[in-house]
Amino acid sequence: MVVREVSAGRLHEVLGFPEKLQTLETTLEKPLADFKMEVDDAPIFRYLYRNFSPRRHLEFGTWEGAGVLLCLEECNATVWTVNLLEGELRPNGTWAYGREFSESEPLPEWARKQTVVDSGATRNYYQTDSRGFIGRHYLEKNLGHRVCQIYCDSRNWDSSDFPPDFFDTVLVDGGHTKDVVLNDTKKGLAVLRPGGLIMWHDFYVSDKPFAGGSSLVGVVEAIQENLSFLGTYLSDLFWINPSWILVGVKKDSLFYRVKRTLFSR
User: Fold this and answer.
1) In the chain, where are the structural domains located?
2) Which fold has domain 4-85+134-263?
3) For 4-8, 35-39, 43-47, which range has the lowest pLDDT when averaged over its residues?
4) pLDDT grade for 265, boundaries at 50, 70 and 90
5) For the packed helices 215-224 and 178-190, what is the interaxial angle rounded to 10 degrees?
6) What pLDDT, in 10s, does the model give residues 94-147?
7) pLDDT of 180-236, one tens digit each?
8) What is the distance, to the nearest Å, from the Cα of residue 169 to the centroid of all Cα atoms in its chain?
9) Distance between CA atoms of residues 215 and 202, nearest Å
10) Is the link from the previous residue into 242 a cis peptide, with omega within 30 of 0?
11) What angle do CA 66, 204, 47 make, to 5 degrees?
12) What is the CA radius of gyration of the chain?
């Protein structure tokens, strides 16, 4: 299997959607290294969820829940999402995700109760992918009743509790080391239905010029080094240009096509 390149403007042709993605000119003109998830990739994720309309969605890596919220707002899916309760740490023991909040910036009430332990941090510095912040964006929109939050290391999560065709879509956007990406990919594919979509964030085609951060290295290596394995599960694998998004389509079967047609009537 190879990763092919699909322009954002042709997604409707590739996936058979009636709606064409309207890409902002400012995005098309922007260098890939300057892309931001909430500005440049979010409209693509919204488009995919809106048009594919999953009933059940699985997401590796919740953080503050902005990605989950994209799915909840664009379709009627119930979402299962996995995140470490204590947040992710770098190899040197410091927080992978954290920032300082101003005195006037609103915080979730439960986040105020957390003890700040990061060395050298101010009292207003919080670990934003740990308890008190996990999923706060969808919670603040009162959408928590549609989310099943799983607190654990995804490498310890037992996906065998779910049927092999349980999820319609999967997003891999948790730990960015090669072993975690591969783990999440394998577990996601094991519970993704035939014809379903698996997506990865923080991916780009490695032969393209890029001066980005190290967080992409593990994702790119996990995919490129396991293309033969992915080929046993996927009928298509493509990078959306321009974006940080990789999409795979799980191999379909006549049985599931008939089943979906009958239950959609």
Assistant:
1) 4-85+134-263, 88-133
2) Rossmann fold (3.40.50)
3) 35-39
4) very low
5) 50
6) 888 888 888 788 877 777 666 555 555 556 788 899 988 999 999 999 999 999
7) 999 999 999 999 999 999 999 999 887 765 555 667 899 999 999 999 999 999 999
8) 10
9) 7
10) yes
11) 45
12) 19
Residue 15 identity: L
Residue 214's identity, in one-letter code, is: S
